[in-house]
Amino acid sequence: MNLSMSFVVLLAILVSAANLVLAHVGVTNIDSSWYDAHATFYGDMSGGETMQGACGYGDLFKEGYGLETAALSTALFNNGQTCGACFELMCVNSQYCKPNTGTIKITATNFCPPNYAEPVQYHWCNPPNSHFDLSMKMFLSFAEYRGGIVPVKFRRVMCNKSGGVRFEIKGNPYFIMVLVYNVGGAGDVSNVEIRGHKSNWIAMSRNWGQIWNTGSNLVGQRLSFVVRTSDGRSLAFFNVAPENWGFGQTYEGKLNF
Ligand SMILES: *[C@@H]1O[C@H](CO)[C@@H](O)[C@H](O)[C@H]1NC(C)=O
After folding, report:
1. What's the whole-model pTM score?
2. Which CATH number is 87's domain given?
3. What domain range is 146 assigned to?
4. Which residue from 21, 24, 144, 257 has the fewest beta carbons nearer than 10 Å?
5. Considering the domain boundaries, does residue 98 fall inside one?
6. Mind listing the pLDDT tens digit for each residue in 126-137?
7. Is the N-terminal amide bond of 209 cis, ω within 30° of 0?
8. Torsions phi, psi of 131, nearest 5?
9. Is there a contact between 20 and 127 (Cβ–Cβ < 8 Å)?
10. How far is the CA of 155 from the centre of ligand 1 (A)?
11. Cβ–ligand 1 contact at 71 (below 6 Å)
């Protein structure tokens, strides 16, 4: 490799690194600045992700997320830490943007995986790209179908959910897993603690997405939770699940962020 080639490679690495840092700022900071990304769409007009995605949410309609959702590229998804965060997007600088359509708002509910098998023009979701794969309905609300992919500006916004934070209990007595969803405010949960009425507070671990687990057996105990979102706010949900709580059941807290 000669000197000028090394320089080009170095420059490419620096540009990638700068993109990653910017993507990170855009995804973690709730501020008013807009960041650059692209958007595509999946599926048809009915939606319709009803299967469990990479955040652990199940039926997005039943869970209240509906079609106002997106799968995020590696750079934005941040290993699932961004699951539940809300974003505002506008279509920019493309003949395929529909005029005067304003912005759309979505919740991050899935991962758009990198794609190394296809030619490079399909590497939207590969690092370091910031990318939103939207439901078709959301995409068509600001861009033309034939555009396929459009440049967008995005920023983090607070989430507004109706009702309380919900806790779906899965797993088994020796490995309790809790999906935490319908989270308002920052939306992305960064810490969960659980306690049975006869136990102390136990820190849960992120299993994947927004599914949190503990190996402590809390069967037959009323369950309480403390949930912290990425902005550092915490809420306590006392006695959310009764003594006879069951696996596969969902319990709703009285509060939301
Ligand atoms: C939630 O409400 C606030 C205040 O009205 C607004 O700024 C924000 O964009 C809303 N978020 C979503 C995801 O609709």
Report:
1. 0.89
2. 2.40.40.10
3. 35-157
4. 21
5. yes
6. 999 999 999 999
7. no
8. -145, 140
9. yes
10. 12
11. no
